[in-house]
Design brief:
The complex is a heterodimer of chains A (about 300) and B (about 600). Chain A has about 300 residues and is α/β, with parallel strands linked by helices. Chain A has an eight-stranded mixed β-sheet, with helices on both faces. Chain A is globular. The two termini of chain A are about 40 Å apart. In chain A, strand 5, helix 7 and strand 6 form a beta-alpha-beta unit. Chain A is built from eleven helices and eight strands. Chain B is about 35% helix and about 20% strand. In chain B, the strands form four sheets. Chain B has an eight-stranded mixed β-sheet with strand order 6-5-4-1-3-2-14-7, sandwiched between helices. In chain B, strands 9-8-10-11-13-12-21 form a seven-stranded mixed β-sheet, with helices on both faces. A six-stranded mixed β-sheet of chain B has the order 18-20-19-22-23-24, sandwiched between helices. In chain B, helix 1 crosses helix 5 and helix 15 packs across helix 18. The radius of gyration of chain B is 27 Å and the shape is globular. Classes of the chains: A alpha/beta (about 300), B alpha/beta (about 600).
């Protein structure tokens, strides 16, 4: 970030008094009563206010699914894009204006299924994006089919006799793909979730928070009653987020104990930091268009 | 007939890895520096080593728009080339070959075989590429050119590798030159001196440069032949020009990333070929729905599916017309040559910025991978830039008292709603690929709202009302009352033009129209041309007459005949001339030219 814009942001921050209400979108969420996504929405609203991020400096980008309706319920710039493509679009936004805070939101099907390829590569590139995945282990908007995170044996409309496939593990996948901030939240614990979100937004690089966000309508296996007794917090056990091996071990537990919290965080340059074109000159989107006479003369000379 | 005083073509054939490109490049540079016009077509295979590669280079004192009908000189780098192409060489031509390794076949009468004892000439060098340099020297003699020109070109080519390499190459070339001088008769017409020095470029470079000139700040792609040259140029020049270039995991990511960058305010572009474009198509519709201007380039190759990756075709037209689900407007433009490809990019960017929509450039292997001479003075690197109604300055005022007053998709008479980019205070909004209202709020989840839906569909469509008036209509070239009118689109313009000249010389009056803008189509102008023409023939590089069917759907008109080629190779002028002649003689109304050069 250029010195001038950093100063500008600092000035803006000191002037603004923001509350969670300032991030309330134009329409109210149309999620089912009891949906875990409400907790994710209110957490992000609180965090943005705490971080004093002016709504016009924030962009939420989503794909398709119940949780992908998120940008419409949140007062900031938003893009509600194609199924599975949130991270690709969000990368484009971030590269065009790296001074924006970019938050991608979506569900498990959107992010780990149809968008799986972008998930891998956005993590690898360490794009400075916060990715909130509202993981309900089911396809809700299409009325209840098996998802990439559905448990083995789960009965859904597309697996009426129980799923024979094993689920993806978003946490270990993200770690293996090179994500630099990997956490798991639970929409039933907003206190922890807001802390994680705050850390994720402040983290430079790709930050995943996989959030258990129960679908009360279509997933009766993994509801609040399922999670409540099982969830244990990594921070309560003094987990060291620089220890990726232990992080993976703990992320793979899925039984009487299921961990939430910050599994891994490491320092690595984000894509905008290593991209030389962004070294100076500010965000690309504000730079003058076209090329100078000197530049074009050099190009034409090389063609001779 | 154009006043073409000098018209010479040569070909270099060999296997991939035999270094065909280097002598091709060196000669091209020598000719364009001399002010001669140049058109090259490289027939190659999807192979890194081996196979057969055939580089055709045509030079003239006049502009050339195709690779011509014949070769005056053939350089065989392997036996395979000799076997395939010798039978095509006619009287007066020369055939150069390394006589250590290659046996000449039976040449037609009047063909001068020019064996080069490469081993003897180079003191038994074991460098496999040495035959190319010997041949270059010999060619200079045959062209009737001064050896110094080659010496300078070799120095330029190899100076980065050190003086030793330069000296070795020059002395090797000199041996070839001297041998040729002692043994072979040069061409009767030496290569003349042309006008002012020209430059050489490929279509993909022109497309990339057009993007740079248009102010592209974000370019992304996934490698795919024959479009990868755009990525290469961009990657090489990006840092100097302040353009961000990303190679993305797949074309789905490419298209969506380009859309993200475009939404955030950059002029944003991506290129691919038909298969990659298939993956991009859903995003094309999303750009239309979210009203985000992006330029997509499709460099056509022979299909379907992975098809023939290194061969040319005009087979993607209907893919572009039908790209993405739903009913929406897009621009589709097919440049007619390399310089036109360059100029098309800024022109299209101005249009998509104005209409906040996707635009597609349909190139093909012929334009994109061909190398052509160009007068640098004709390359306008500072074209007019018009970003349309964009709100992209920090501190912009939206005319309303509060941020709630800004409507991203405001219904206006023109259909154009001022587009604010993220980061601009007072203009917070959400864009959506779902149908939405003026304020960007989804209406897809409402039980029913046919009126809102209708008004949004009509708003988007209104942007394109009378848009055809902003682009140049197709022009009829040649005599107005010609016996036959040829209709083509995109890259066939140059070869059709020359076919008309050849027909004229044969006493058949011919004119032609080369359509560049597919959408919007100047249907009225084309109707006027077709209804006035005596005999109309559509020339297309595909099997099913894709443009013909589109033209019929837009004008309700048919034509008298068709010339179609779908063997992967581009048209040569005589293919068209022969087709026209047989059709005018009433023999057929559907000609499929035979491709003689077995590449």
């Amino acid at each position: 970030m250029s010195a001038a814009s950093t100063t500008r942001l600092a000035e803006e921050k000191s002037l603004v008094q923001l509350t969670a209400k300032d991030y309330k979108g134009k329409v109210d969420p149309d999620w089912c009563p009891g949906c875990g996504d409400f907790g994710v929405l209110s957490s992000l609203q609180k965090v943005c206010a705490e971080l004093k991020l002016p709504p016009h400096q924030v962009v939420t980008v989503s794909g398709i699914g119940c949780s992908s309706n998120f940008p419409g319920f949140f007062n900031a710039f938003g893009m509600h894009t194609l199924h599975g493509r949130a991270l690709a679009v969000a990368t484009g936004v971030k590269m065009a204006n790296h001074e924006l805070t970019v938050v991608a939101t979506g569900g498990d099907g959107d992010g780990y299924g149809i968008g799986g390829n972008h998930f891998t590569h956005t993590a690898r590139r360490n794009v400075d994006i916060t990715y909130l995945v509202m993981n309900n282990q089911i396809y809700g908007l299409t009325t209840g089919q098996v998802s990439p995170t559905s448990c083995e044996g789960m009965k859904t409309k597309s697996t009426p006799f129980g799923s024979v496939e094993r689920p993806v593990n978003p946490i270990t996948s993200a770690i293996m793909n090179g994500a630099t901030f990997v956490a798991r939240g639970y929409s039933g614990d907003q206190k922890q979730l807001t802390t994680l979100m705050k850390q994720a937004i402040e983290h430079r690089g790709f930050a995943l928070i996989d959030i258990f966000s129960p679908c009360v309508t279509f997933n009766h296996d993994n509801d609040y009653a399922f999670f409540r007794p099982r969830i244990k917090k990594l921070e309560d056990e003094g987990h060291d987020p620089t220890d990726w091996k232990t992080a993976c071990e703990k992320a793979m537990l899925w039984g009487d104990t299921i961990y939430t919290g910050l599994f891994l965080q490491r320092v690595a340059s984000s894509l905008d930091e290593v991209e030389p074109v962004l070294d100076e000159g500010g965000p690309l989107c504000f730079r003058p268009l076209g090329i100078s006479k000197e530049q074009s003369d050099r190009i034409l000379k090389r063609m001779m | 007939m154009s006043s073409r005083n000098f018209d010479f073509a040569f070909a270099i054939g060999g296997a991939a890895g035999q270094g065909i490109a280097t002598p091709g490049d060196i000669l091209a540079r020598i000719f364009v520096r001399r002010g001669l016009h140049l058109y090259t077509y490289n027939a190659y295979q999807s192979i890194i080593r081996g196979g057969h590669i055939f580089l055709a280079v045509r030079i003239s004192d006049q502009p050339v728009g195709n690779h011509g009908d014949k070769f005056d000189l053939l350089l065989c780098l392997n036996q395979d080339t000799m076997n395939r192409h010798l039978p095509l060489m006619g009287p007066g031509s020369r055939v150069l070959f390394n006589s250590d390794d290659i046996q000449p076949g039976q040449a037609a009468e009047g063909v001068q075989l020019c064996p080069l004892p490469v081993g003897d000439l180079t003191g038994g060098s074991r460098n496999k590429l040495v035959q190319n340099t010997v041949a270059l020297g010999a060619m200079m003699h045959l062209f009737g050119m001064n050896f110094k020109l080659l010496e300078d070109a070799l120095t330029l080519q190899f100076k980065r590798k050190g003086q030793e390499v330069v000296d070795e190459n020059v002395s090797t070339a000199r041996a070839g030159f001297d041998h040729a001088k002692a043994n072979f008769e040069p061409f009767a017409d030496p290569v003349p001196q042309g006008g002012k020095p020209l430059a050489v470029w490929a279509g993909n470079e022109a497309l990339a440069m057009g993007g740079a000139a248009a102010g592209v700040k974000f370019y992304c792609a996934y490698p795919m032949s024959p479009s990868t040259g755009v990525l290469h140029w961009m990657a090489k020049n990006a840092r100097e020009l302040g353009i961000m270039v990303r190679q993305v995991e797949d074309e789905i990511g490419v298209a969506n990333m380009a859309i993200g960058a475009a939404h955030a305010g950059c002029r944003s572009m991506c290129a691919t070929s038909g298969g990659g474009f298939a993956l991009m198509t859903e995003a094309v519709g999303s750009a239309a729905m979210m009203e985000i201007p992006v330029v997509f380039i499709d460099v056509q190759r022979a299909g379907p599916s992975t098809g023939v990756p290194t061969k040319t075709e005009q087979g993607d037209l209907w893919q572009m017309l039908g790209a993405s689900q739903g009913d929406f407007e897009r621009f589709i433009v097919a440049p007619r040559d390399c310089l036109d490809a360059f100029n098309t990019v800024p022109e299209l960017f101005n249009l998509v910025d104005r209409c906040q929509c996707p635009g597609i450039i349909v190139s093909d292997l012929l334009i994109s991978e061909g190398r052509f001479s160009v007068d640098p003075a004709d390359i306008n690197m500072q074209p007019e830039i018009d970003r349309g109604e964009i709100i992209n300055q920090p501190g912009a005022v939206n005319g309303a008292a509060s941020s709630n007053g800004y409507l991203r998709y405001k219904i206006t008479e023109s259909g154009i709603s001022p587009r604010a980019i993220p980061g601009i205070e007072g203009h917070v909004h959400v864009v959506a690929t779902d149908e939405h209202d003026q304020d960007g709020v989804l209406i897809s989840d409402e039980f029913t709202n046919p009126h809102k839906r209708r008004s949004m569909v009509e708003k988007r469509a209104r942007k394109f009302k009378d848009i055809a008036s902003r682009i140049a209509p197709p022009e009829l070239e040649g005599p107005a009352d010609a016996d036959v009118t040829l209709i083509g689109w995109g890259s066939t313009h140059g070869v059709i033009k020359e076919a008309c000249e050849q027909l004229q010389a044969l006493g058949i009056s011919a004119n032609h129209v080369g359509v560049k803008w597919i959408v919007p189509l100047h249907a009225e102008r084309l109707t006027e041309i077709i209804t006035r023409a005596k005999h109309t023939i559509i020339v297309e590089n595909n099997y099913s007459g894709q443009f013909y069917r589109y033209l019929r759907s837009e004008t309700g008109l048919s034509v008298n005949g068709h010339i179609r080629k779908y063997d992967g190779e581009p048209f040569m002028p005589h293919h068209i001339v022969n087709g026209v002649r047989e059709q005018l003689a009433g023999k057929t109304d559907h000609s499929v030219p035979y491709q003689e050069v077995m590449v």
